Amino acid sequence: METNNTSAVKYWYALYTKSRAEKKVQDQLIKKGIESYLPLKRELRQWSDRKKWVETPIISSYVFIRISLDDYRKVFEIPGIVAYVSHKGKAVVIPDEEMEAMRKTVENKLNFSVESSSLKKGQQVMVTSGPLAGVKGKITKINGQKKLYIEISQIGYTLVVNLDEATSIE
Asked: Is CATH 3.30.70.270 the right assignment for the domain spanning 9-94?
């Protein structure tokens, strides 16, 4: 008897969470054994009586998960999850290379910003040296600065990375 292994293949998806619930959702996903990724940044927050360094999500209200179709509904057991990011009622798969590019950008603590718009201009390139080696993206040169635009196209966000002169691209 042949078995169908397509349901065991894992894909990346974006989950939309309730406001400020990203870390709690991430903790619950880990407890349930679901591979997940919550890109965080450190920032200094000012209160009336003190300043404190806190980790905040890079993209508010989103957590990324890598699951098989068998686990598709399992995530809704976790409080704080609103929905999958979807198109025409079907959850959109985020390509592995886009997730890897986001991971490398965040983990290497590169100077970047997040923009919520799709880019029309720019040449498709691949970084050949430096911490982002192997990452594909679109590049522009603005006021003498090189910028790499890494699109997470399925959710409409773009990471904008400032590249130094030591980084080479092709």
From this structure: no
